Amino acid sequence: MSRATFRERVRYWFDNTMSRGTAALIGWLALISLGLILLVTLLSLWLTPAEAEKNHGAMGMMWVALMRTLSPGKIASDTGSAPFVALMFVASLGGIFIVSALVGVLSNGLKDRFEQLRKGKSRIIETGHIVILGWSEQVFTIVTELVQAHASDRGSVISILADKDKLAMEDEIRQHVGDTGRTKLVCRTGRPTEPANLKLMNLDEARSVVVLSPQGDDPDAHVIKTLLALVKRSGDHPPVVAAIAATANMAAARLAGGPDVHLVDSDDTASRLIVQSSRQSGMSVVCMDLLNFADGEIYLRSDPDLVGMTYGEALPAYQTATVIGLRRACGVMLNPPMSTVISPSDEIIVIAHDDSLIHLAAGTPGAEESSIVSAEHVKPGAERTLVLNWNSRGRQIVRYLDGYVAPGSVLDIASDHPDAAIGFEGLTNLTVNAKDCDTSDRYALESLGLALYQHVIVLSDDRYSADHADTRTLMILLQLRDMQTTLGERYSIVSEMHDENNRSLAEVTQADDIVISDTVIGLLLAQLAENQHLAEVFGYLFDSHGSEIYPRPANRYVRPGAPVSFASVIEAARRRGETAIGYRLADRVNEAPHFGVVLNPSKSRPLRLGEADSVIVLAER
């Protein structure tokens, strides 16, 4: 290779100085200005000595040249010999170039600086704040819930770090969330996987960290890399909650985040909720009421007054809170045996509208014995279930459903998805059949013979975008609703959707339950960001082992139409080894936002439950 020439070396040096930014450009303009002033001064001293003498010699001429360079308009007042005027004209022309270039350089430099300031690159100095890393549709649910949770707190702060424009993030949150009240929102632009960007969030002083699973291809890789960046950083490590989209990546995420990270398996949680909702109408509504901060919340409380009592005796202990279980050193127990004695180290798990409302009742409310009904729980026999559409969590749903149904049950899958007919080995209770079907075609739906089924599950087709998939789901729900009305058929319908806004549109279909999977995950992340100990409670609720939430016919607990207190309902459930936590009114199942569900009602307020109403209980299958 030939050696660099002198010209190439000069050009290389010049390019390097120019790349140093605004300061280097201003420096070059200053040098050009100095050169022009010296040249005009020297020429004036040589060619126009008389004018130079009038202007006090060399220093005076340098000042005159400087003024012409910085203010080219001064040439209009120049008088003297032709060479003098010509030199001033040259200085003014050079000044026009220099001043124009300087204005442009300063303008671009200021613009770049404002852009940097606009992105929010300063370090956050808040303390006790909640940090959200990443961006997805779930961020709006999380921020909304955290704002509600801290509505009465002064100085609460939510900070967000995402690879997105700062002002764009703030505008979108204002649009979706609205007024954040006393909660301060701080956004920063940066990549959560970069240690330098994490330093902006003052994680040492943070209360908790939420890592979101971003939209796009392979979102779990981004989450796992973020967890690695959090583990490797020095300083204090606040509690971390993260959402993992695919169950297969949970092991890698646990290894990356360490034992102190609480992971939410999005696929697993949504699959369990879809299955449970298909079995028990209203399940998703109950879970969403428990997960959001606007309604009944779950609290852990140590209460010495209940020590020595059995769990069954403690059920009616609180007037405005509902006991649902115990937390011990060995783990969480929801609806434990009624004879379980409460020890001093136990924490009582209760549902309450606010922690300030958890206080013991003045007296134990009496149960109306004449209104309590003793009826054995009837286990369902073999059933037929139809799944319309398919997605990546379909096989997980099938396997969970296999654990709920009685032997001999049948599951038919109707979809034109290429993956809908494979991977169903090892099932115990279910026989699975796959049918190729265009579920958007009304005639294809009618040919399925829906009257044969007790349950219909409509999944979101993952071959389409979230919005398009929700639109197709709405069309199917409308068709099913019309077929039920026209043919007089009755089967429960549970559908999966992505966007909470589409739920209001789907209300016209009167589906028995609609699971908004993204919203449920967002609510769960917000709860765990506030209290990591609730991870055990919600994990227990969504597990198929142990006690689960069941809306069961009210006529199995109390006489239909009889005026009773909820204390009587609690007693009726207690005698069956169950924990009553609320009820659902059949005539309000289509009324948003609670769809007839009432959790944690007053123990003494009278109510009438009809034949079609349900009592919501924690019970074994």
UniProtKB/TrEMBL annotation:
Task: Return the PROSITE patterns for the record.
Answer: RCK_C, RCK_N
Which SUPFAM superfamilies does this chain map to? Answer: NAD(P)-binding Rossmann-fold domains, TrkA C-terminal domain-like
Q: Which domain of life is it from?
A: Bacteria
Domain RCK C-terminal, by residue range, is 283-366
List, in alphabetical order, the GO biological process terms annotated in this UniProt record. Answer: monoatomic ion transmembrane transport
Q: Where is the RCK N-terminal domain?
A: 127-263
Instruction: Tell me the keywords, alphabetical order.
Output: Ion channel, Ion transport, Membrane, Transmembrane, Transmembrane helix, Transport
* Its membrane topology: Multi-pass membrane protein
Where, subcellularly, is it found?
Endomembrane system
**Recorded family membership:** Belongs to the castor/pollux (TC 1.A.1.23) family.
Protein name according to UniProt: Voltage-gated potassium channel Kch
